Amino acid sequence: MRSRHAWLPVLALTLSATALSTAPASSAPPTDTAQQTTPRTTPPRPATPSLREEEQYWTADRMTDAVPTATPSAPRAHTDAATPHAHTDAVTPHSTPPPGTPRPEHFAGHPTVGTFFFDSKPLGGKSTFCTGSVVHTAAKDIVLTAGHCGTGLQKATHRIFVPRYVSGKPAASQPYGVFPVTRVYIDPRYVSNTKKPVSDLDLAFTQTAPNSRGKRLEDVTGALTFTATATGYTQRVTVLGYPSAEKVNPRHNPIRCPVTTQRLPGYGQLKMACTGFYGGVSGGPWIKDYDPTRGTGKVIGATGGYNGGGNDANDDWVTYAPLFGKDAQALFNDAAAHRTVGARPPYKTLVLPDFAPAVWKHAVGMTAGYFTGGSPGGSRHMDLIVRWDDGRVTLYQGGDTTHPFTAEYQLAPSKSIWAKAVSLTTVNTGGKTDGLAVRWTDGEMTLYPTVDPQGFHGEKQLAPPQTALWRDTVQLMTGGRFTPGGNRDDLLVTFKDGHVSLYADLATNGLSDQTQITAKNATWPHAGQLTTATVTSSPTDDVIVRWSDGETTLYPGLTPQALPAETQLQPPNSPWKNATLVTAGAFTANTTANDVIVRWADGHVSLFTGTDTKGLHTETPLT
Question: Taking every annotated instance into account, which residue ranges of this chain make up the domain Peptidase S1 (predicted)?
Fold first, then answer.
């Protein structure tokens, strides 16, 4: 258990009659297994303390006395244990940070970020607090924090949120007032301070009552924007929190640290390095597009996750946060609607079989299709073929919505002829499975009408070696149905001089039926990735283009006549300029190929499901 992130007091199952009403809570301690999917619900509580009573209770001395709990041997908050446990400031790092590790800035704070106070003195524990941030909702009463903070809040008394907390002042004199916590929302699959995959779910939301002036929280403080659509793990964010250790933060001012994040390998979590993140910072926001004057921006994570938010050595300079995705969005939706958190399906970290980002840096080509059986509208999802820079070719068998790939087949070993392939794309010529069109370094073009776990079958030469056109002038290509009717064996090709051509019906015509769609121009040389999708209901396939500046556009219903009007999916200078490989397919629903897999420059892989004309939506990490 990480000492500076595990602030949860020991709590009894039954609290005093002054306890506040709680969010849904599990009737038994959650486990870290796939079977734990039931909603957290508890019977209604007795009458809650009034706001005046809370302000009288939280004197300056009581608030100053609040400290984080911290011993590896301390019972976890979701247990029924009632034994008092020790506290420590834990301010000594266990290892020296690398040279150049940034240091945080102590500052006056923002009203959008504050602390929680709650009491467990009936059981002998001291008052405790974490960090929280106000996130925008229509109800204007929701605060984001860590799940392991929320589990303590669920069963505590005298629960309040204090925006821009000022040490030394009682609750009644805090500059923005205090807001009683009336409800807590936590994913039922989460287990406090675990090191297992469900640590990805370490977030919670609290619902608050108005302050003593009758004002709703967000009307007083403003709010951050909860954002579950961050693209990738390499993010520029500012991390905020309230360290409570007296030795490092005697005034209990918040800290902030601008950092560039990376992925915590094997988890759906961000990792950052900055010294001074001691007890009290759990639940603190990781803010993208941070406005240091107003304290606003997009919150894409909150301090917590693996081991409560830090490494096994308990180093103060290593901190983690779950990267918000579809599960976080679902919990936010429940909190924003003041809705009971319902049952959830078993949690599975979506990781491609046996691969990590370091390996995926070596992926140089990928394409989706039905290579192991199935067809559009059937029960099987699309497969994925990946070509590696050492000549290997791998086939990943399509799975289901929770785990998109279930098996792996090697189609070609390392140092094979496939090291000389330049690009490959999926086509369907009417065979039992989809096939591939392949361009080689020497200008040869080949068609494999059928590809399956046993390999590549029926090779047909479309252009001989040393064909200058295909060797020297072609830039990108993607297969699909771009002429009405027939098979998905048309080939869209972009050239280095900017012109774009369509080759219709490869199985019948080879490369003889060429139609130029655009003439030489200065725009299309900037196309970086090309993939076929079925985003719209057009009778022909759509095409997604990732441009060199990060702009990503959709061309709906492409035909030989002309390029259709484009739809922007990502703006210029977006993170998509780091999208090294892009392919679309039917990976989560077997009706349309509107899911997009991206291999980023740093090697991690993401899945964007349900792409439509409004854009790319929730990102799910695959590595």
Answer: 121-305
